[in-house]
Amino acid sequence: FANLLHTKTKKLTRVYTQNIDGLTSAVHLPTNKIVPVHGTIDEASCETCGKSMDFNAFCDQVEMKIKDIYNPQTNSNNNEKNYDG
Question: Of 24, 28, 53, 73, which is most buried with the most CB atoms under 10 A?
C-alpha cells in the first residue's frame, strides 16, 4: 500500500514502522520516507571506534571468524564444524 501511495499518487509523507528487521526497506521506498521508531538492524557499529558496516556483512564476518569452544579442531580459518554427535 505504501509503495503504491508513493509511486502512483506521490502523496506518501512518511511510514512509521516498528520493524527492526529492515523489512520496510524491501518495498523500495526512499529511506527519507521511512521512520524506524525502534531503530533498525541494517547496520552494526563497533563499540570502540564507532565504524559501521552492513549488518549482513557483519553476520558473515562473525560466521567466518567464530571459534567453536566445544571443538578444539575448529578455528577462525575453518568454517566446517566436526561434531561427533
Answer: 24
